[in-house]
Design a protein that fits this description.
Elements (H helix, E strand, L loop, with lengths): L18 H19 L3 E6 L2 E6 H36 L1
Antiparallel strand pairs: 1-2
């Protein structure tokens, strides 16, 4: 039989939420407060169309688009960098 004293101790490490979670939560809360405080109707123009909409929707769309751009930009840059590195190795 195996001696239980020779086995390494296995402890489960409980980690809390990382700092990124709290930064994201604060940013989302600030965006929510900003949107709620600016609920009047505004004229929005985009490309060839114009509409009257609550400022809440314009701000939410702008916030979502900003989030998508912020998420996608590093991936695009990383892909371009990898393409350049592959081209350099191929020569």
């Amino acid at each position: 039989m195996a001696d239980s004293r020779n086995r390494p101790e296995t402890t489960t490490r409980q980690e809390g939420r990382g700092w990124r979670f709290y930064v994201l939560a604060v940013a989302a809360l600030l965006l929510l407060v900003f949107v709620i405080q600016n609920s009047q109707s505004v004229k929005v123009e985009f490309l060839f169309t114009e509409t009257e909409t609550p400022l809440i929707f314009a701000l939410l769309i702008a916030g979502l688009l900003g989030g998508v751009i912020g998420w996608a930009w590093p991936h695009v840059r990383r892909g371009r960098r990898q393409e350049r590195e592959l081209e350099g190795k191929g020569k």
